[in-house]
Amino acid sequence: MSPAVSGVARLGAHGQSAWYDNLTRTLARGGLDDLIDRHGITGVTSNPTIFEKAIAAGADYAAQLASLGSSDPEAAYWALVVDDIAAAADRLRRVYVSTNGDDGYVSVEVSPLLAHDTAGTVAQAGELFERIGRPNVMIKVPATPAGLPAITDIIAAGINVNVTLIFSLARYGQVIDAYFAGLDRLADPSRVASVASFFVSRVDTETDPRLPDGHPLRGHAAVANARLAYDLFEQRFAGTRWDDLVAAGARPQRPLWASTSTKNPNYSPTLYVDELVGPNSVNTLAPASIEALTDHDGIAADTVRRDLDAARSVFSGLAEAGVDFDDVTAVLEREGVESFAQSYRDCLQAVATALSGDAT
Question: What is the mean pLDDT of the chain?
């Protein structure tokens, strides 16, 4: 095996899928092949921030924008996105086939402006899935209170779902409930796949400043939170109810570690990869993470199952230090929703500028 792919490839050897947390037109039209073949990437995620950066870059989208002849920036935005998602899904179709539908997905998010609109989310999820017309597409739905019933309805409609913006164990439990409720309404639950995107690095980014300088728990909350989430996954996807669903063909809703690039330069650039390796899970890797893993041969199996007692003690320690972790996760959810909404608005503005011919 080439050293250039050792780190990423070892995730797969330990039962964890590596998905690429980035999408551009260049990737969708061919660049993904190299990531699949050389790096073992088995899926792709996108979000409004990723599309904002890609579309704002301009050149790859100029010809299509010029051909649309539309004065509606939102319609034009979705035309660009649908084309990229469909092309990426086609590139990943061979992975989807070879894994019998366990991998090979590309994710696209409903409008972030629908984060508090259950009916609107369900309607747009159905429209997007039908419009893209590929079986290996996942519709991303935020784990907001309004998103939870939408998840159930979308799963019940036989549509793959990537549940995004999960930060707390309590909300994660509700996401699992929503998935089970959707499966219960399907005559053939083998029709759908789902992942639950548990955000990682942002937890440390929000928690660390609430602790005094030099506090020993700085840099520990995110991994502890994810490890307890994985433990909850293993508990919930077991037992009689789950066994009955498996007998009908259901797939587990795998935990997906999102936001795993390190934000603090004092932490290892592969911290949120090394410490969260486990079977039946996914790690989404940004370009910087792929680079950091290039010559990294320190990937070990089952690190996500380690030190659960220590993980629990992190949260008792945070409470003793006066950190309200419920507030941490509430802030992260609110800011995550608004961040994606702002990226969406910014992207629509960039499209509007290009349609008007004012782009420089």
Answer: 93
Residue 138, sorted as left (phi over 0), alpha (psi -120 to 50) or beta, turns out to be: beta
Rounded to a whole number of angstroms, the CA Rg of the chain reads: 20
Q: Cα torsion at 92, 11, 167, 336 (round to 10°)?
A: -50
- Measured CA distances, 142 to 103, 151, 253 (Å): 21, 9, 15
Task: For residue 130, give Cα distances in angstroms to 30, 82, 106, 135, 138.
Answer: 24, 11, 15, 10, 12
Q: How far apart are CA 290 and CA 296, in angstroms?
A: 10
pLDDT score for 10: 86
- The whole-angstrom separation of Cα 139 and Cα 125 is 6
Which pLDDT value is given to residue 325? 98
Q: Are 230 and 304 in contact (CB under 8 A)?
A: yes
Coil vs helix vs strand at 359? coil
Active site residues: 140
CA diameter of the chain: 61
Residue bearing the bigger pLDDT, 350 or 166: 166
DSSP-based three-state secondary structure for 155: helix
The amino acid sitting at 119 is A
Assess contact for 46 and 76: CB atoms under 8 A: no
Q: What band does 321 get if pLDDT is binned at 50, 70 and 90?
A: very high
pTM: 0.95
Q: In terms of Cα–Cα distance, which of 200, 207, 196, 136 is closest to 172? A: 196
Structural fold of domain 3-356 = TIM Barrel (3.20.20)
Spell out the alpha helix ranges (H) of the chain.
6-13, 25-26, 32-39, 48-56, 59-68, 73-98, 118-132, 147-156, 169-184, 201-207, 221-236, 240-247, 271-274, 287-292, 308-320, 325-356
Return d(Cα 185, Cα 235) in angstroms, integer: 22
Express each pLDDT in 6-47 by its tens digit: 578 889 999 999 999 999 888 999 999 999 998 899 999 988
Greater model confidence, 12 or 298: 12
In this structure, which amino acid lies at residue 154?
Answer: I
